[in-house]
Design a protein that fits this description.
Its EC number is 1.1.1.219, 1.1.1.234. The protein has 330 residues and is of the alpha/beta class. It contains ten helices and eleven strands. α1 crosses α7, α4 runs parallel beside α5 and α8 crosses α10.
């Protein structure tokens, strides 16, 4: 008999890929969304289910309403908590970002506690923002190598509200897991990129790649995570009885904008794409734990970038400008 699992934030970028992979494995997925009537955010989920072995049930649940997830989690073997507000800038960062992230996580964890007889494990989508501050705002730590043992103790409001929200939400999850005796595993991705399934285009990742494709270089050097790897890590963490603690999902080094632009120009020679700056790659991520313990293979970053760009073009979510004629040619 197929197992039932729950995914919060069902219309999101990570959740969509996660649901895709869960359906392919034959799971029945209960996806929570704020409104089933918002077709732009949920229609792709039911479309996925028609082509894959599993099934999707959409359940309305407000992240900030206590008890809203109780019915959604009933009878679920695993809960994947991917939902969280994601705004780099907010007018009132404490009220708009940090408090909702923490309250939402508490509501989800308490709903799991009330369904403890059914739910074997909760896998929470945290972030590398919970282990380190914004590299663009402050110098990295001495040695510049980060692992699951690190916690971000440098980010402050209002400058790094998103980073603060991820730290506080994950700490709240661990506190409640201990309090209620819940089996919790957290996944910590870096800047998530990779192919898109939904036409929904409000993710920060979409804006980053759309800008590149439409001729504006993004001159900072992120460490990337492939959305397919992130989703796969969630499933591996749920199904492996020995999984525990935190798992970083990311490539090992930041990637220079000049490298990004060269990959895109190679893949799309017909478009007028910007040249990225050459930047030193200062951050190093230790991703050995997720590979060694969960058996996750990290997708090469070139594949991640090129695959995402291709899907944005295919879905008409980006409109690259064709190159003009070469000088002297008409």
């Amino acid at each position: 008999m197929a197992q039932t699992v729950a995914v919060t934030g069902g219309g999101g970028y990570v959740a969509t890929e996660l649901i895709h992979q869960l359906l392919a494995k034959g799971f029945n997925v209960r996806a929570t969304v704020r409104s089933k009537a918002d077709a732009a955010k949920v229609a792709h989920l039911t479309c996925l289910a028609t082509a894959l072995p599993g099934s999707v049930e959409l359940v309305e649940a407000d992240l900030l309403v206590e008890g809203a997830f109780d019915a959604a989690f009933a009878g679920c073997r695993y809960v994947f908590h991917t939902a969280s507000p994601f705004f780099i800038e907010a007018g009132d960062p404490q009220a708009q970002l940090v408090d909702p992230a923490v309250k939402g996580t508490r509501n989800v964890m308490q709903a799991v506690a009330r369904n403890k007889a059914d739910v074997r494990r909760i896998v929470l989508t945290s972030s590398c923002a919970a282990i380190k501050g914004n590299a663009n705002a402050a110098a990295p730590k001495v040695g510049s190598t980060y692992s699951e043992a690190d916690w971000n103790e440098t980010s402050t409001l209002p400058a790094e509200a998103y980073w603060c929200s991820k730290v506080q939400a994950e700490r709240a999850a661990w506190e409640l897991a201990e309090q209620h005796g819940l089996d919790l595993v957290t996944i910590l991705p870096e800047f998530i990129m990779g192919p898109v399934i939904s036409r929904r285009s409000d993710a920060t990742s979409f804006g980053y790649m759309k800008a590149w494709l439409e001729g504006t270089a993004q001159n900072f050097a992120p460490v990337f995570a492939d959305v397919r790897d992130v989703a796969r890590a969630h499933i591996l963490a749920a199904e492996n009885p020995a999984a525990s603690g935190r798992y970083i999902v990311a490539t090992t080094h930041s990637t220079s904008p000049s490298t990004i632009s060269s990959w895109l120009q190679e893949r799309f020679p017909e478009y007028a794409l910007a040249d990225g700056e050459e930047m030193e790659c200062t951050e190093i991520i230790n991703n050995s734990r997720v590979q060694g313990e969960l058996g996750l293979s990290i997708t090469p970053v070139k594949e991640t970038i090129v695959d995402m760009a291709a899907t944005l073009v295919q879905l008409d979510l980006a409109q690259p400008k064709p190159k003009g004629p070469e000088p002297g040619k008409q």
